[in-house]
C-alpha cells in the first residue's frame, strides 16, 4: 500500500491525529518536489525554487517567504553546506508565534539537510557522541531490526546508523535497570532514561513493514510523547513535522 493511502486510512481510524497527519502529507509533498528541484536545476536558482515551493505548499505569506530568502542570503553562508543556519534564523519575539515559526523553519530545512547528508561523510558515530553522526543533532527515534540490532533514525537530516542495543542514546549510559518503558498497542515503545530524563522512541521492524515510514510511526505514536512529557521526560529533537514539546 502506498504511503498516501496508509495516511488516508489512519485519518479515518484516528481522527484525533488528523491535523498532524495532514501536515505530514504536505511535508511529504514538499520533500518530494524538492528532490526533483535538486536533481534537475542549477545551483544558483535552488534557494529561490525551494522557498517558492515551500510557500506554495504551506501557504506562506509573500512577506515571510521574502524574509526567509533575504535572511538566508544575509547570513553569508551556503544553506546546503551549513543547513543549521535555517534553524537559527531570527524569529519573532512574540511568544505566541515563536514555536510555530520554529516548526516552519524546521520543515523548510529538510531538503537542505538531505543535500548536506548526501554530500558529507559521517563525522563521529552516534554511539560515541549521543548525536546523529552526520548533522550532530540529538537522537529521538530508533528502529530495531529482525536481528535485534538498533538503528538511529535522525528526524533532522534523515541519517540512519547502528547504535548500541540497550541504553540511553543521549547520556550514553547502558544500564538496563535505568531505563523504564512505555508501550502502546502497536508495540511502539518509549524508553525513559532515569539518569538524564530523556526519552527515545523505538519500534521494531514489523511495525516499519506495516507503515513503510519511520517518521509516520513517530507521528501516530504522539500519545506516547504526551505521556512521557507529562511524567517530566524530555524529547531532545523534533519529529518530522517539527513537534518537540507537547505539554
From TrEMBL:
Record bears the keyword Cytoplasm: yes
UniProt entry tagged with the keyword Ribonucleoprotein: no
GO annotation, cellular component aspect: cytosol
Listed GO MF terms: ferric iron binding
Domain of life: Bacteria
FdhE C-terminal domain sequence ranges: 182-240
Keyword vocabulary terms for this entry: Cytoplasm
Signal sequence annotation: none
InterPro entries to which the protein is assigned, alphabetical: FdhE-like_sf, FdhE_C, Formate_DH_accessory
Name of this protein: Formate dehydrogenase accessory protein FdhE
